[in-house]
Amino acid sequence: MKILVPIAKVPDTTSKIAFTDNNTKFSPDGVTFIMNPTDEWYALVRAIELKEKQGGEVVVIHVGLADSEQIIRKALAIGADRAVRVDADPTDAYFVAAQIANHAKSENYDLIIAGKETIDYNSYEVGGMVAEMLDLPCVALVQKLEIENGVATITREIEGGTETVEIKLPLVICAQKELAEARIPNMKGIMGARTKPLEVVTADATEKLTVITGYHLPEKAKECKYVSPDNVGELVRLLHEEAKVV
Amino acid sequence: MAVLSFVEVSQGKIKKASVEAAYYGSKVAEGLGTDSVVVVLGAASADELATLGTVGVKKVLHAADARFNNFDSKAFTKAVSEAANVAGATVVVLSFNQNGKLLAPRLSVRLKAAYVPGAVELPEFNGASATVKKNVFSGKASASYQLNTEKKVIAVNPNSLSPVRGAGAAEVEAFAPTLADADFSSVVKGADLIVGEIPLSEAELVVSAGRGLKGPENWGPIEELAKVLGAATACSRAVSDVDWRPHHEHVGQTGLTVRPNLYIAVGISGAIQHLAGVNGSKVIVVVNTDPEAPFFKAADYGIVGDAAVVVPKLIEEFKKLKAAH
After folding, report:
1. Are B128 and A192 in contact (CB under 8 A)?
2. DSSP strand E in A54-193: where?
3. CB-CB neighbors (< 8 A) of B309 in chain A
4. Confidence band (pLDDT; 50, 70, 90) for B138?
């Protein structure tokens, strides 16, 4: 089985978020970049587990500049077989999806496993867009995935529970929590990652559908109103009369 | 010209998130001086669909085809995009809920439309372009997205605006999208719904607890508080990781994102990953023994105190409030 896993580079959750150029650009100063958690912990690890069980190949693809090499090597250290980097600074999700779809067209993947969302733009876009560009079925918010005889059995989140569906391969999956347990690369993996193939390709020209015209930081931090533990009734009164939420 | 909203019906009722999407669509249509049209796929009663008139919908395109009774992202994308063409829609509105999160990006590709995932406000139009605000960096900032294409797709965050109901009934019209059986790829084998509880993703009130409770045996008062309030229960990642609570209750960056009107956090320190899943809540109440817990910085109301003492008192006080109103 041949599986493609798109990985994104995002600011670490604990990063302080700041903007420059009159609040029109994200400032990378002092920010630590990491592989997007749902891509790494769930999508990539499940792909590797499926390969370990059934044989095949796991390819990771990343759209980004040369400074992304560290996260690509990490994906290889965790267990991907080879990597493709599309050499471009991503403009929007449509651009990223178009690059991934163009690559997938020439490789005949059985399965594409993306993460559920990136923790920077929280958009849930790339998986669904790639599926539409390739005219493939797609299931999002996937918590379980088993493959047998070319058919995927998938459990996904729905309102108030889960739903289980069967779909024939090829297809696109957007992974979330519970799909796999995060793996930490071991020394053998880290050493091996240095020599695994990393192909750098040029980007295809694509239309730009959206433009971010400005960022806004919250105006001020919330002021917490403290209530004494001996006067819980006062809190209930405030929630009822002041906040009007109960 | 029109604005088309995608509405889902579950167990005979229009989903709450879909009512919000339809209302949002009607508001956009009003701003553009055009009609608010809705598309519904699968079984639904005409009476239920007509109620969409109360949130400003003029016409409902209803495809009663039984093949739509289960969600299939590829088939639904084709059907909704055909509805957009039939209605002459320039803007398509969906809820940013479980199905919308997949349907909307597919539609954006199919319609070659710029897309805003998780809009929190109504768009501002400037000629043919529209600007919409959405949250980014897990709620630490927001961004203005400019949509410059002729067609636009907007997925609106649940609980972002409260629909105002008026009078009126929507006209329901049969709609038969041209789909082959081959367009439907998924076969539903079953669903596992948590019965007797309020779905966390739809809850307006949430009571959540974390490691500060010291053990799964101490959750009784949390569940009772939720019951008194009519709230859903949630938990932190630390607690679901050690199986004190089920995984579906985990809210935070890698779990569920919730945006209730009231989020009560008991014994949760408020790590940034947890805040990322709850900072869209309208009002946050924090109960924690540690006055330095970071969650207090994100809270509207706080009590520095022990859950074992404070929660039973809260239950009593809320009971009194409920009895009085």
Report:
1. no
2. 57-64, 82-87, 111-115, 138-148, 151-158, 161-168, 171-175
3. 229
4. confident
CATH tag for B200-324 (out of 3.40.50.800, 3.40.50.1220, 2.130.10.10, 1.20.1250.20)? 3.40.50.1220
Asked if residue A66 belongs to a domain, the reply is yes
List chain A residues with CB under 8 Å of B194: 160-161
Of the options 1.10.3720.10, 1.20.1280.290, 3.40.50.150, 3.40.50.620, the CATH number for the domain spanning B2-183:
3.40.50.620
The minimal CB distance from B115 to the residues A161, A210, A222 is found for: A210
Three-class secondary structure of residue A166 per DSSP: strand
The helix (H) or strand (E) run that includes residue B275 is helix B272-278
Contact residues, B window 200-229, toward A, CB-based 8 Å cutoff: 200-202, 205, 229
Nearest to A159 among B98, B102, B117 (CB): B98
Give the Cα separation of A95 and B110 in Å (integer). 14
- Give the ipTM: 0.94
pLDDT tens-place string over residues A92-124:
999 999 999 999 999 999 999 999 899 999 999
Shortest Cα distance, chain A CAs vs residue B75, angstroms: 9
